[in-house]
Amino acid sequence: MSTRLATGGRLLNKAKPVNFTFNGKNLRGYEGDTLASALLANDQMLVGRSFKYHRPRGIVAAGPEEPNALVNLGAEGRFEPNARATTTPLFDGLQAASQNHWPSLEFDVGAINKHLSRFLPAGFYYKMFMYPRAAWKHVYEPFIRQSAGLGKAPKATDVDTYEHFYAFCDVLIIGGGVAGLHAALTAGKSGARVIVMEQSDHWGGRAPVDGGTVDGQPVDKFVDGMVTELETLENVTLRRNCMGAGVYDHGYVLGYERLRDDSPHVQGPRHRLWRVRAAHIITATGAIERPLSFAGNDIPGVMLAAAVRDYLVNHGVSVGDRTVVVTNNDNAYLTAIALKHAGLDVPAIVDARVLPQDSQLMEQAKALGIRVMMGHGIASVKGGKRVTGVEICAQAGEGAVLEEISCDAVAMSGGWSPVVHLWSHCGGKLRWDTTQACFSPDVDNPPLGADGMGFVTPAGAASGVFALDDVLNDAFAAADGVMTSLGFDVPRDLKSPEAERRQDAPMMPVWLMPQGASVKLREKAWLDYQNDVKVSDVRLAAQEGFVSVEHAKRYTTLGMATDQGKLSNINGLATLAGALDADIPSVGTTTFRPPYHPISMASIAGEARGTVFQPIRRTPMHDWHDTHGAEWEPVGHWRRPYAYKQGGESTYDAVMREVTNTREKMGLLDASTLGKLIVKGPDAGRFLDMMYTNMMSTLKVGKCRYGLMCSENGFLIDDGVVARFDEDTWLCHTTTGGAERIHGHMEEWLQTEWWDWQVYVANVTEQYAQVAVVGPNARKALEKLGGMDVSKEALGFMDWADGELGGFKVRVYRISFSGELSYEIAVDASHGQAFWDALMVAGHDLGVMPYGTECLHILRAEKGFIMIGDESDGTIIPQDLGLHWAISKKKEDYLGKRAQERSHMTDPNRWQLVGLETTDGSVLPDGAYAVAEGENENGQRNMQGRVTSTYHSPTLGKGIAMGLVLNGPDRMGETLIFPGTDGKEYQAKIVNPVFYDPKGEKQNV
Amino acid sequence: MKKYSVFAVAREAMRHHTGWNRAWRDAQPKKRYDVIIVGAGGHGLATAYYLGKNFGITNVAIIEKGWLGGGNTGRNTTIIRSNYLQDPSAAIYEKARSLYETMSQDLNYNVMFSPRGVIMLAQTEHEVRGYKRTAHANALQGVTTEFIGPERVKQLVPIINLDGPRYPVLGGLWQARGGTARHDAVAWGYARACSDMGMDVIQKCEVTGVRSEGGKVTGVSTNRGDIDCDKLGIVVAGHSGHLADMAGFRLPIESVALQALVSEPIKPCMDVVVMANTVHGYMSQSDKGEMVIGGGTDGYNNYTQRGSFHHIEETVRALVETFPMVSRLKMLRQWGGIVDVTGDRSPILSKTPVENVFINCGWGTGGFKAIPGSGWGFAELMAKGQSPLTDAFGLNRFQEGRFIDESVAAGVAH
After folding, report:
1. B168 to chain A nearest CA, in Å?
2. pLDDT of residue B412
3. For B70, which residue in chain A has the nearest alpha carbon?
4. Which residue of A has its CA nearest to B67?
5. I want to staple A604 with a disulfide (CB 3.0 to 4.6 A). Which of A753, A840, B110, B316 is the partner?
6. How far is A924 from chain B (nearest CA, A)?
7. Which member of A151, A604, A926 has the closest CB to residue B313?
8. Taking CB atoms and an 8 Å limit, are A595 and B331 in contact across chains?
9. Which fold has domain B118-181+255-342?
10. Which CATH number describes the domain made up of A908-1005?
């Protein structure tokens, strides 16, 4: 059984016991424990069930590479599925529950799959479940979905907060082990701005566990010394619990800092996403031990040798009383020796190698009385939910059992793989290291920056050197090289410290144990524990032609689990290479993608959620609208009142009232959201002539003109009234949603095509509040305010003037989007509300009411005015809308002119703008299409038109619509049929689109 | 070809699966083929399959620079729908969707087509009107869709937040027979069927040149030697510009990175596909339990299959806003692919200035869903010189100004 030892545990604070629960059981650990170490201390080896066969799963590793120990963590607004026990810090009150089983962890019905495993090899689902056809959706898929998945879906809303940090540095060092710290010290003392990110909550990485001496002192003291020194350097930032998550182009790095995962109830953000631009990145990310592939290597109690050592040294936990160590390298001997020193039994070290002579560590192990079995392997592990013993065989053979050794834990080591993920994210290449049987960074092919130079350098174990002195030398060389390339002077007295050198025997690659394992053993030898991929599965993939490493991965799901193959990938590649009789480097690796280890979605979203998800833009009169019954409509980033409801009236009734009131008396519209772009400069006139289809350069100062803007492809993209302020200044109104887009459009042309034209464009939309004063009483209200002459003679239709009204400095445009007498009046934004108030007072006896966007739509539709986004949709040219009058014939060019001359654009048989009136006065459905006779070649009903805008007009007392109809203007009076999605057919007559005041007498008074 | 079935699996289980053959032959290039398809992605393989199945043309090679299905076929978010606005789009996507329905049976390969339904959320009044219009058009195009209100949306997607303070859900366009499929399986199933018809699927065979005489194609040069052909189909999303350049013509496309990501797997919580175009994100849950998430394209042209993190942020933010539970999930993996984008966001399936060279490209961000329809139509175009499914998608439409703009129906996300 696994238990807490009386002594040991360098990371524990034994003065602070911590209570937590697992599957409802009350358990106890210490501050400094991870959930995994605390579970092991409580003899909870069984922690979950595998994905496919629901096999019992125990803790395998001690870090983020853990594939098995995933739990449902916390509750309610702090619930998190798939939390890794090995990276979850223990805290008082922690609640964890195991995943992927029913009804319980111990008795899981899904475990029946393991007896069917023979029928469920890699890719079995591609070969069956095809009949009957409907069964996939209704039977098979729901069943598969239910048994797959891991943790529960969160339900409650997240109660935590998150934030982003932005930082810049010369060198970002990822990994706070001895290599990272030493590189940081070298860079820091050279004067560079340094950030060090360490994923765990302690410095030093593996070195303090593995021991050794540096400059004559124990390595943990050496680590403490480096940290102390680094803390004194102001140019160095140290972050623990902060993982380098991803490396992107141009030295962009994501850091994932977990601030409150160990203290959820403390105020403050839970996670912080660091977004760093670094001139250079040093990846000191260490290495990960590989499992060995032998039958039964997935039974709880089989763990990585280094993890067994970690739990022992860091947390004072023994994972078993009797631990068999199985290895192909010297490093695992450290585990056996450490266990023995702790007073635990190590019945044997099973070493696959045959060596001419004993190494230093072998001698030490033997001296402690440990039996070392060279040239041997494990044929099979005994046990179900827990290891009970191992069967020993010759590694060279096929698995004939030589003897059985009883034990309750197995510590395995298949060698070490450098963590090359961050090196590889942005294109760093790898080379195969034959001696150590691992991929390590090919330093001649680093990820390249914009200058063509490498911007990532690996250091320490991450670059493929594992002995302590090599690691320190490599880290120093890496930092020294980076400093020099960045132009920093490394102090001359800086050098790499002397570490004690241990003479290890070479490792021997072992990809299958025993090397000639039979198919029956291979079917029990796991590669990917979480996804249940076995040696036999990879071989099957190869047999079926899935020989590309990407195919094998996708066919077997190897490496696609939540650990992304940290333990399984190399073993899987080697198995594939073996099956293909190819060498490992020619098989290659799959692509390393960010993040290195899963990061919370919440941290990516950051602060921007809820009301601050996207900024809401408010006009100066926003609050007034809000208190006067406004129903809000999102328009671009703005909110605009859709209608103002009075008393208990419905939204529809409010809209009808607003239309009638505006037509008969007077209405106010908050038009502040309309885009306002100032275009200024000696070339502004000719620039606007290119932007608009109309001639703007000839517009007289003091005058306004309605303009159309098209894309290069000739399609209408925006419209609005342009006013000329002076010789070289114009103001261009855009649609509400178009302000930023059109500003960008203008800038793009100015910056990329006409960069030598002297024109500036400024977006002044928010500098002005603008109110449309509309209706027969509009002039009277303004006269009541007084201050300037607003008569027809002084300010005619399509004039503008600066002046004063009611004491406000105003700019008045005599323009109309309603067909009524109308003034659009701009005031400084800060005076917007006061001016609005003044208008409401002045209009009080004249029947003033505010109106919203829907009323605006109806008013313009009654007049046959087009609306961008309704009558246009990115496929419409102005000619379709009968707007020929707004296209200058005199100009040599404008954006879209050439496009509009293409054959399809000049085709006389186009859908063109008309008015539509139902025969019974009802309202046509929005977006309905008019059908023509027959079907096209693809069996689709032929169409001949569609509705673009449709409303009930209270003014006319009937439904009115605008639409585009094939040759429409030539077909006045014809009746079309519009099938509705409600099953009804609507009949409508083609009429003139101007329903109200066709002669324009009202707006011109 | 050994037929796949539950009985075959059971039989093989008895002998530890030692009897399975390769899914497709490991073919060596021959000297000459009637048709060469460049690009063994979904579209290329489907084209070859329908050339054989519908037109009896089986002397066909499908040649592939890397591993088959390794481009966008293996990188997309597997959404299948046909609720397009314009007639030509609706026709080809609906043809594809209907072929997906029976693909597993047709190919004897379970591609796991899951007609679970697709909702495109309407979160502004403008979108509401747009989707109502699409629903009207779809009804006449033979595509079954429906505009549904917020209550129905909530019923179909219990994890959705209807009342987000920024963009409340006002309804959605619902296509009940849309869904997802297993993307790799589509490529593998077609490859197996093509191989079975005697076609050669040749991987690790990179085209280095297109050879022609008198304006007519004669074959291709590859890293494995010259191969002759009568007709050449170029189906290489992400690299269409390169291949067109080799053949001697230019294309009106831009290539940009499109990214996607998945969460860690969780138990089933969302049974349909949801697309939220206003906030730029879409999500479905894979059979494995991962939430599969996609967003918009990068704003600059490039060929690296990575993309910028800023788009991931924008997408995740949109999803957290739309589905608050996403906040407590973790991102497992992000990746990118290169998509060819045309001026009207619709594909090109066309003859080219070089006689007997045909091109199929420009699917932008939405090619996966079109695979069988695209293959069906493109095979007809290659075999007969004309196809009602592809007629509108010719290269000449850019000269004539006859765009097929889907901006109303498709927005950013496909």
Report:
1. 9
2. 37
3. A550
4. A548
5. B316
6. 12
7. A604
8. yes
9. D-Amino Acid Oxidase; Chain A, domain 2 (3.30.9)
10. 2.40.30.110
Sign of CA dihedral A31, A37, A43, A45: positive
Which residue's entry shows tokens 């039974």?
A: A299
Q: Quick one: closest CA in B to A941, which residue? A: B140
Residues of chain A contacting B110 with CB distance shorter than 8 Å: 125-130, 136
Q: Nearest CA to CA, how far is B213 from chain A (Å)?
A: 32
The fraction of chain A above a pLDDT of 70, given in percent, is 100
> What is the CATH code of the structural domain delimited by A1-154?
3.10.20.440
The pLDDT score that the predictor gives to residue A774 is: 98
pLDDT of residue A767: 97
For A309-351, write each residue's pLDDT tens digit.
999 999 999 999 999 999 999 999 999 999 999 999 999 999 9
Q: Is B254 on the interface with A (CB under 8 A)?
A: no
Contact B330 A714 (CB under 8 A): no
What is the pTM for the complete model shown?
0.95
Q: Which two tokens stand for residue B321?
A: 């806003």
* Omega cis (within 30) before A514: yes
User: How far apart (Å, rounded) are the C-alpha atoms in residues A332 and A325?
Assistant: 7
pLDDT above 80: residue B261? yes
Residues of chain B with CATH 3.30.9.10: 118-181+255-342
Question: Any CB–CB contact under 8 A between A161 and chain B?
Answer: no
Query: What confidence tier does B296 reach under pLDDT thresholds 50, 70, 90?
Result: confident
Inter-chain CB proximity B139 and A981 less than 8 Å: yes
Q: What mean pLDDT comes out for the span A877-897? A: 95
The whole-angstrom distance between B218's CA and the closest CA on chain A is: 31
Q: What is the pLDDT of residues B55-113, one digit of tens each?
A: 999 999 999 999 999 999 999 999 999 999 999 999 999 999 999 999 999 999 999 99
Residue of B nearest to A713 (CA): B401
Q: What is the CATH number of domain A618-882?
A: 3.30.1360.120
| Cβ–Cβ below 8 Å for A126 and B141 | no
Q: Complex ipTM above 0.90?
A: yes
Name the nearest CA neighbour of B2 among A543, A580, A140.
A543
Q: pLDDT tens, A506-551? A: 999 999 999 999 999 999 999 999 999 999 999 999 999 999 999 9
Contacts of A824 (CB under 8 A, 6+ apart): A671, A770, A771, A772, A773, A812, A813, A815
CATH number for A291-414 (one of 3.40.1000.20, 3.40.50.11270, 3.50.50.60, 3.20.20.70): it is 3.50.50.60
Note the pLDDT of residue B410: 38
User: With contacts defined as CB-CB under 8 Å, which chain B residues touch A924?
Assistant: none
Specify burial of residue A528 (Cβ count, 10 A radius: 0-12, 13-18, 19+). Answer: buried
For B314, the closest chain A residue by CA position comes to A605
The domain ranges of chain A are: 1-154, 162-287+418-486, 291-414, 525-585, 618-882, 908-1005
- Interatomic CA distance for residues B133 and B123, integer angstroms: 15
| Amino acid of residue A820 | E
CATH number for the B22-82+85-97+183-252+344-410 domain, one of 3.40.1280.10, 3.50.50.60, 3.40.980.10, 3.20.20.140?
A: 3.50.50.60
Q: Which CATH class is domain A525-585?
A: mainly alpha
Q: Do B264 and A980 touch (CB under 8 A)?
A: no
Contact with chain A for residue B386, Cβ under 8 A? no
Tokens of A385: 């939910």
Task: Mutation target for B interface from A73, A126, A538, A907: give the one with most B CBs within 10 A.
Answer: A126
- Report the pLDDT value the prediction gives residue B408, as an integer from 0 to 100: 55
